[in-house]
From TrEMBL:
Family: Belongs to the TonB-dependent receptor family.
Domain of life: Bacteria
Keyword presence, Cell inner membrane: no
Keyword Mitochondrion: no
Annotated protein name in UniProt: TonB-dependent receptor
Lineage, broadest ranks: Bacteria, Pseudomonadati, Pseudomonadota, Gammaproteobacteria, Cellvibrionales
Amino acid sequence: MPSSRYLLAATALLIPISSTAADTNKLKIEEVLVTGDPMSRSSLDTVSSISIVPDEQLRALNIRDLYDLLLRSPNLNAAREDKFSVRGISNEGIGPGGTGRPTVSIFIDGARQPGRGVANSWDVKQMEFYRGPQSTAFGPGSLAGAVVVQTRDPSTQEYSGEAKVGAGNYGGREAGIALGGPLAAGFAFRYAAETNQTDGEATNTTLNDDEWQARKRYMQRLKLSWNATDWYSAMLTIQDSKLREGNEYLPPETAEDGISTDNIDGFYRDNSQLWVLSQHAELNDDLRLSLIASHAKNYNQRKGDYDISDANNGYFINTVNTENDSLEVRLQYQTSAIKAVAGLYYANDELVGTSSSIDLPYNVSGMQLRADADLAADRDATTRAVYSEADINLSTRWTLTLGARYEENEATNRSAFIVTGAELIDPVTGTTIPGDISPLLKPILDNDTTAPSGDDVLLPKIALSFQINDELSAFLTRSQGYRAGSVDFVSSGNSPSYGPEYTNNYDLGLKLQRGSWFVQGTIFRIDYDDMQIGVRVDASNFRTDNAGEAKSEGAELEFRGDLAYGFSVFGGIGYVDTAFVEYQDDGVNYADNHFPNAPRNTANFSLRYANDWGFFSDISWSRTDDSYIDRENTPTLLADARDLFGARIGYQGEHFGAELYGQNLTDKFYITDRFNSPSLGINTVYVGDPKEIGARITYKF
């Protein structure tokens, strides 16, 4: 690192920790602790828009995983299980291409986790959604936001556990167990395991498979804590997740009937593991030192039919291996006058991916042929950062927040296109002519290039909060987001690089806590500079543009509280307007076009009833507007608007519980995403889950 900038940033950021400002008695309101915030604030004290969804709310909505919750939260939207948006900004960025990082990070017990289906809700204490740029607090891959999943910690006081079994339509079944408690010598443990499966609702008429979209999920997690002294504690978390499912996409003309016509037996497989070791030392009454080390590993593979028909027009196998190792040292300081954190962060990310095309028709210099080829992309990236943030109490009501992060990213990137086999096509019969001609094509088409990329950035943050009275507070925040540049996939020539993208984010919010009621509202604006926009050139080439300017602006309102006679409510409303401000490509002006996967309006509402005898019922509704799926805003390529209704009724005693539940009760058919690529000959849709009816039995001990 450039030593002068690094030391300057560190010195400036650590000044608040050595401050000797006079003690003040800031008004505090008892609230839920935000576990992902390095400052360890309460939800009322956070200076950003954050949704905290506790275990009780997850159960009331029958939430199994992150995807279910994204469908039912304001200004959050899931197109697919691994493709979602926050305030209109997709976690994948805009369009395909490149080897860049995501824009939204997912953390499980402090570890960044890249896998799909890893955010399971079983034995989870709470889920947290941070809307807007979180690069200062969470680092790489957090330009649009962050998701934090906090699982249940071991208890050092008593043994406890829970078990469940359930069944539903479409062959649905689930089972789970969680138990833990104290061991000896200050040790305690918590073990959780769960599986949920379904035979799916789609049938492949070509392969005569009526379980074409079957899904199977498996999760195991072990947490081991040690807390034998007054000043030191440690927690080890190990989690293993597996997902097995058929291809999600369907032909547009038969999707509503749940019919697939692929002639290739496709699948999706995902294996994810994480290890987290958190250590904390209470140095004195004011200082806490933390060391957080994590290792996350993910393997996923997808096999699918290119033309999703019974014709033999080739298929693909995409394989991606990723590993992330990180180490963070964090020093927290707190008195009645100031609360601060400073830290050092190091991470190494490795990505190895291949996209193999098999029997894909090609036209090379007028020759018609079928070819096998591999498109490969490797990245070895290192991130180093120093950061700090401080809440300085200016008076009993005013608090100034200052923060910054200096970060350096360096990466070695490889892209390659390798022909592995080819046969000519007889123009008369349309059949292949025996004989491998790939040795003739390889000198023309093969390419293997390695290129470096790297950049550094200083990300400031400033906020001012005002405690209006004992129940109402307001905040104004300005922060910056950042995503590193990288190198594109290519099949010929040098690997084109693209630069980083930046955002300036402004949040103005109000938070109210009165009795059981909590209400928060935020208006925001996000200004993009050099937005990374991926463009597929053809079957084997991607390009990433750095668009001039773009924006996202809107508001969100959330509330929860008790009514009377056992009734309570929670819900929210979100509005977002996105647009490219300056962006032209190949003579086409995209200014004023909306971002893909950015519905303008989202809303959700739930009503719950529970009495002293243990009987309960929940009804819920969520709304999402339609949205474009491409940068061109093609009117015929929309994700559908949808209203989803759910309900739950049951009994929960001291130990035994039973319930009936339903999701998408009106059996609404809706398209969540589309993939339309003329260069590949693909036109597919992704559809939401149909009506689900099921029952569940639980036992707590």
